[in-house]
Amino acid sequence: MANQKIIEAKSQIVDEIADVAKNNASFILFDYRGLTAEETSELRKALRENDAKYKVWKNTLTKRAMDSLNFDLDSCLEGPSAIAFSTDAVAPIKALSTFAKDHPALEIKGGIVDGKVTSLDEIKALSTIPSREGLLTMLAGGLIGTVRDLSIALNLYSEQKEEN
Q1: One domain, residues 19 and 94
Q2: Which of 42, 43, 131 is nearest to 82 (CA)?
Q3: Domain that holds residue 148
Q4: Which of these, 12, 110, 112, lies nearest to 61 by C-alpha position?
Q5: Domain count across the chain
Q6: Hey, which residues does 53 pair with through a beta bridge?
């Protein structure tokens, strides 16, 4: 009976991994070998600040979960792997990329972003996107410029009408 209990426990973990992959916008695999315990704590804190989580599951269980979802991440599941995930597609990518700049031991392998397998090149491109707040600031700046131009045009039009 012990074998049945082990199989059930592993099945629950596979289901948990599959749920995490399905219910989050990003699911990023990375190699954490070479990070000290202190650096790992820093990484967890950086991910938490970006509303992301970090978990380590066995590669065989992760592979089973990915196979059940029809995702091919076999090349990413070589060697020890940790997984960062979040409902925000870009947050964990930016956090991991920023952390990797100061800690070369961390290596991003690949993952799933918005329901599709994403290559390392695509992840690097996503890491350069400004944050949500930065994008909103850019949008507000653009809108303010438009409103300013409109007010100047209306002012010039009203001055023209006063002269006539």
Answers
A1: yes
A2: 43
A3: 131-164
A4: 12
A5: 2
A6: 85
